[in-house]
Specification:
Layout (H helix, E strand, L loop, with lengths): L2 E2 L2 E5 L6 E6 L5 E7 L3 E5 L6 E9 L2 E9 L2
Parallel strand pairs: 1-7
Antiparallel strand pairs: 2-5, 3-4, 3-6, 6-7
């Protein structure tokens, strides 16, 4: 995964309603939001150095990607 410090830009193919979650390695949800936008900026400046999972849920479909935060 590409490392991030303050902001991660998330780009989706559709503008359907989506829930976006950031989950830590212990399974705790640290961020949760909903959006209709194809491009979303996620503020990760409050996260400590480590690995996280970004989960995007659109209807019955979901995708996930790794996030590395470096301070």
């Amino acid at each position: 995964p590409n490392p991030a410090t303050n902001v991660v830009q998330l780009t989706r193919k559709t503008n359907k309603l989506a829930s976006i979650l950031i989950i830590d390695i212990y399974g705790r949800t640290l961020f949760s939001d909903s959006t209709l936008d194809k491009k979303t900026n996620l503020d990760v400046s409050n996260l400590i150095t480590g690995f996280y999972t970004i989960v995007v849920i659109e209807g019955n479909e979901f995708s996930q990607m790794r996030l590395s935060v470096i301070k």
